[in-house]
Amino acid sequence: MNEKEIKALISLLDDPDKGIFQEIEHKLITCGPEVIPLLESSWESSFDPLSQSRIENIIHKIQFDQVKNDLQLWKLNNQEDLLEGLLIINRYQYPNLNEDQVYYQLAELRRNAWYNLMYDMSPLEQVKLLNNIIFREFGLSGNTSNYHDPQNSFIHKVLESKKGNPISLACIYALVAEKLDIPVYGVNLPKHFVLAFMDSQDPEKVAFYINVFNRGQIMREEDIFAFLRQLNLPLSDEYTLPCDNLSIIKRVLRNLIAAYEHIDNAEKRMDIELLLRLLED
């Protein structure tokens, strides 16, 4: 479909006949992201609230289809890239974001740590350095005043506001550690996401845990076991050993579902539930 045909379809979006509108909507959505600039231009020049509302909904549906496609491709081909998974979730709320800024900020954190990193440092010294760079110098912290804010799950907003929930803080910490070859990985602990620092002598064994929501506090195995006993949960590998990136992205989505439920936004909650189902199928 050429530009003239697309513009002709857009001009009919104020048609009161619901059947005709649905046919036009379907045709525009199937055109994909390429029609968004034309839709935005029409929205800006329109004075009709109905047309504007319909254009906004069509743009959202096109962008949401793109997020669904990106997430399915990530699951199939790119699960080792945690940052890409987080950015796809970010695109749900911020489809027009320049993602270079996220890469730049993470690279800056990595660079600042690298300047001070000595490879004869002990694991505890390495964590102390990361804590200093990420929490003291950069200023990242847990969002204790607005724990259920959906913004806590979007990585660029966490880097911008410097506040997040346990899993978003853990992801940023782990991404920086990964670039420095420091063996830190996410642990899917119920009710509280933490990180594990793996033993250099035995890569299958956890040396200790890191509570990023408490500014990188060190936790021992017995702390994790006591926490699980409090929740009446078994001391299983599922809760005590590193999880894969797919599990992390699923948990980010579950947090978002709970956040949208908390603020009573049913439409966005259903969108995110659909994204989660795509990963669970």
Automatic annotation (TrEMBL):
The Protein SirB1 N-terminal domain, residue ranges: 102-254
Record Pfam families: Transglut_core2
Entry similarity comment: Belongs to the UPF0162 family.
Protein name, as recorded: Protein SirB1 N-terminal domain-containing protein
Naturally occurring in which organism (per UniProt): Sphingobacterium zhuxiongii
Lineage summary: Bacteria, Pseudomonadati, Bacteroidota, Sphingobacteriia, Sphingobacteriales
